[in-house]
Amino acid sequence: MTATAELQRWIRFTPAQRMARFAVFFVMAAAIAWAIKTIEIIPEFLYDAPEQVVDMGKRMWPMDWSHFWPAVWPALIETMHIAAMATILGLIMGIPVGFLAARNATPFPWINAIARFILVATRSISTLIWALFFVAMFGPGALAGALAIAFHSIGFIGKMFSEGVEEANKGSIEALQAAGATRMQQIVMGYWPMVLPTFWSVALFRWDINVRESAVLGLVGAGGIGMVLNSAIDLIQWDRVSLVLFTIFIVVILIEAMVTQIRKRVI
Questions:
Q1: Which of 159, 191, 199, 218 could form a disulfide with 227 if both were Cys (CB 3.0 to 4.6 A apart)?
Q2: Is residue 22 part of a domain?
């Protein structure tokens, strides 16, 4: 009777699972402790942080609205142009790579491997690193920013698009193959209509992201409103800094609302 009750006793985790969980928690705690020790947090800087925040808020208010039309507005328009150009270039470069990475659309393992390597490589490099590279190549300005965001977008767009292609209905493709359709006809008449909602979803979502990223790239000289923000910070003009930050915040909210409405109507 005792042996039967022992066998029926419910155990949530096996000894091996408990050891694995303990190992994970131990590694996480050790990593956190090592990170805290490595970054060398200075307690004195934390004590007066609330006072610094209050002082910064006083310097940033009221905003210098006289700076909006001569400097912030032109930079904002340039930021929107950078985001639009980067999205278009990213789609032009990312969609073909996405088709090559999809195993059902391109049944050649070595081509799939090369395409997936391109997707991982372009996505793993930060947009700021791309921006520094293109600023060194083409000089500071909007061109460097647009190319930086476009090359970083290849990995995101291509990965999302390849997953959409791989989830396409096989029946329609097999029907086209049985009718003697070429590979290009299968892509245009078979895969593309099925992944068109994915295309619009990825394009709109990536444009939304690119607007936000283009607002930051100006800090490294890649054009846009970030350059106005960087200039105001360098000159310690905190009332203008608050104006730029407020403008970016409002633009991001408006774009988010606009993208949501477009998605409802298009997709």
A1: 218
A2: yes
DSSP output for 8-69: H---SS-HHHHHHHHHHHHHHHHHHHHHHHHHT--HHHHHTHHHHHHHHHHHT-S--GGGII
> Contact 140/223 with Cβ under 8 angstroms?
yes
Using CA atoms, how far apart are residues 86 and 150, in angstroms rounded to an integer?
4
Cβ distance 139 to 226 under 8 Å?
A: no
pLDDT for 267: 62
Are residues 127 and 12 part of one domain?
A: no
> What number of other Cβ atoms are within 10 A of residue 137's Cβ?
10
Which SS3 state, helix, strand or coil, does residue 139 take? coil
Residues 6+ apart with CB under 8 A from 143: 134, 223
183 and 215 co-located in one domain: yes
Q: How far is CA 239 from the centre of its chain?
A: 30
**Window from 50-64, 135-149, 206-220 with minimum mean pLDDT:** 50-64
The single-letter DSSP state of residue 61 is: -
- Give me the long-range contacts of 24-30 (CB less than 8 A, separation at least 24): none
Percent of the chain residues topping a pLDDT of 90: 2
Domain count, the chain: 2
Model pLDDT, residue 27:
92
**More confident call, 181 vs 118:** 118
- Specify if 41 maps to a domain: yes
- Is residue 100 domain-shared with residue 202, that is, in the same domain? yes
Residue 57 maps to a domain: no
Q: List the domain range (segments joined by +) for residue 15.
A: 2-46
Residue 148 half-sphere exposure, CB side, CA atoms within 13 Å?
Answer: 35
Please give the model's pTM, rounded to 2 decimal places: 0.75
- Asked if residue 51 is part of any domain, the answer here is no
pLDDT score, position 28: 93
- Is the CB of residue 141 less than 8 Å from the CB of residue 186? no
Indicate whether 77 and 199 sit together in one domain: yes
